[in-house]
Amino acid sequence: MNTELRISKIETIRAPEHTNTLWVQIHTREGLVGIGETFYIPSAVEAVIHDFCAPTLLNKSALDREQHWTNLFAYANFFGYAGAEMRAISAIDLALWDLAGQYLKQPVYNLLGGKIRESIGIYNTCVNTPKYDDQDAFIERPGELAQSLLAQGVKQMKVWPFDRFAPQMKTEGAVGPAGWSAYGPAGHYISADTIKQGITTVEGIRKAVGSKMEIAIEGHSRWNVNCALRIARALEPYDVVWMEDMIQPDSVSDLKRLVDETRIPHCVSERLFTKYAFRAVLEQQAAHIVMPDVIWTGGITEAVKIAAMADAHHLAFAPHDCTGPVNVFACLNLCAALPNAMIMETVRGFCEGYYRDIVTDPVPLREGQAQLELGVGLGTKLKPEFLARRDLIRRNTGA
């Protein structure tokens, strides 16, 4: 039995202004603290971590990552693992990898086999932030937006110009202009005129910068198969780099229809949890690009396996992030070490904005590339000034 690096306390942290984010700190008897993160419904995940994960982990060695992942997944799978349980396991897993790197005084990518590249290209997901109104811009002035990104060295952008035409939920969580939201029910009809309106975003980018900018189309699973096919065929002349989650990813045979019946590469999907979901997609050749979300699908432990499965099918993986800073650093360690990493998702307004208030290290971006010279562990920590705030919602199990 491993007696090193014993887990003494598990702590969760929420900040009032970041209503979707949960940070996890795993403390050890040796005084090391590992950091993890996940996103969406943090109070539910917080309960899972303290009521479900902590009793299994306390007083165990933080170095036994594979054992902990296997035990927690087996326990969760007894009653259904997807959802808050998997997000909790993912956050815990990141913190355990961070601890292992700190203990061995190595960046996580060295624990994964060492560095295979010095940098990787990034793309910008065009959401609105205090510094940049990128989501408004891809509707109202897409060419100007593309030029702004190119000026920073960013050569790929992700936009979702069709979401506003899908059925809308009445909710306070709207995230786009005129109240339209990225989430909601699937649409079952889209007209030629509506498609033309959506295409104006892509046309505006191509008119302004030509082929200098790669364009990814996010679908947020807002359409049924026939609508997705109609949109894809309209986009084919514009040479987009991928279409992502045009339909809900729970039917592999329907995903395969998109692959078989259109000429655009299809990217699938941050919504799939664990290697088992990705196995079905890969076996049926239902995706061109694999996009796991490390803080949802099972952490670094599971993401490595998903990426290896994609590599065995001669496909790339492109980690998902439109969430928090710890996830970015975890993904950059994967991109440093794994041969089939394609590109890293970023949001420039997050990287230049609130991420810097949360973690000690800025995301290492330069001229459209993420630099992969990272510190020990994941390469960052929560800032002492952030942790000193009195308005944080903190819960601890252990001592």
> What sort of overall outline do the alpha carbons produce when their principal axes are compared?
globular
Task: Indicate the radius of gyration in whole angstroms.
Answer: 21 Å
Low-confidence stretches: none
Mean model confidence by pLDDT: 96
What portion of residues is helical?
40-55%
Largest sheet: 10 strands, mixed
Distance N to C terminus: 22 Å
**How many H/I helical runs?**
16
Strand content: 15-25%
User: By helix and strand content, what is the structural category?
Assistant: alpha/beta
> From N to C, what is the helix and strand string?
EEEHHHHEHHEHEHEHEHEHHEHEHHEEHE
Number of E strands? 14
Can you tell me about this structure?
It is globular, with a radius of gyration of 21 Å. Strands 4, 5, 6, 7, 8, 9, 10, 11, 12 and 13 form a 10-stranded mixed β-sheet that branches. Strands 3-2-1-14 form a 4-stranded antiparallel β-sheet. Helices cover 41% and strands 16% of the residues. With 399 residues, the protein is an alpha/beta fold.
